[in-house]
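Sequence, structure tokens quoted for completeness.
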Amino acid sequence: METILTNARLVLEDRVLDGTLTHEGGVIREIVAGRSHAAGAIDCEGDVVAAGLIEVHTDNLEKHFVPRPGVIWPNPLAAALVHDVQMAAAGVTTVCDAVCAGGYDADNDYRRAIFHDMVAAIEAGVAQNVFRIDHRLHLRCELSDPQFPEDVAPHVDRPLIALASLMDHTPGQRQWRDVAHLKRFMSGEGLSAADADALLAKRMRNGADAAAVNRPLAVKLFRERGLPIASHDDTTLDHVAEAAGEGCAISEFPTTLEAARAAHAAGLSTVGGAPNVVRGGSHSGGVAIAELAREGVLDCLSSDYVPASLLQAVKTLTTVAGLALERAFALVTARPAAMLGMDDRGRLAAGLRADLVRVRFLGDGTPIVRGLTVAGRSAL
């Protein structure tokens, strides 16, 4: 059936248009200025209507598999369904669910226990058509884990994989170059100071050696399959040069302005954390992502660990970085779509998928999602 959305602020690629959007059969048919007086037209009451958000890296799925330390939820699909609803409520229509191959601590990391079930749950939800939104997989490759190759091997040919990222959380470098900051983070996860020191020493001892072996292996695996590869937590010029030399297309969460500038200059798309924007800075001592936006070296936002942060960050960047609303929205729509090679979505244009989010921003910038459409069907 034809659906007409009118009296909407339509976020186009180059402007915001007060107008009317019509979609039919899961596809956008027409976008025109002004109001429609057709019978059955839906009055959007001046709300913003944009392309549905595209999330490239969220750890949110993991929270529902391990809702408390030491507790692994016994029904994987049920956990994935709750995650699906939460992403939809945040305005996301396409999500790359980050699943971790390997872990920080090969002997004790809970990620090994849930990895296969997380992959299977997403595949089952897609196969049974029970999700509200479109799900893909993002392989987070923890290269500092000696057991990484055996973890990733069964999954590299999964058809839902859209992206792989090369992660090295060895203490003393990249995200955790400030070891004191990492110790505070670990204490927040319930570790005593003595236990944290022991675990840090182990990670520092084993991580670098494992990463040196695993990184070229991972690059070879994913390049052979034509998958986009992201380098994670680039901090120095050498990190960016390494990523570019390996054929990475993305620099995910660069931790310094220097690295973001270099990545942008090298043709890598940069991804920044939306929670960083909302909070006004990094929780781990990295660069403020708003600074990357002001410098023009930010290509995409990811909600990372807070789904609702995407729309909050979009609005925040219009004030703290001076971005026009359409430019801020592009960071969560058109830019990630292009980065992932999804040319059927991410923009409001005739002929593209009718993936739409309707949102009202309150006076303080708080976003209220008032509607979500995925391939023409209501998802909320």
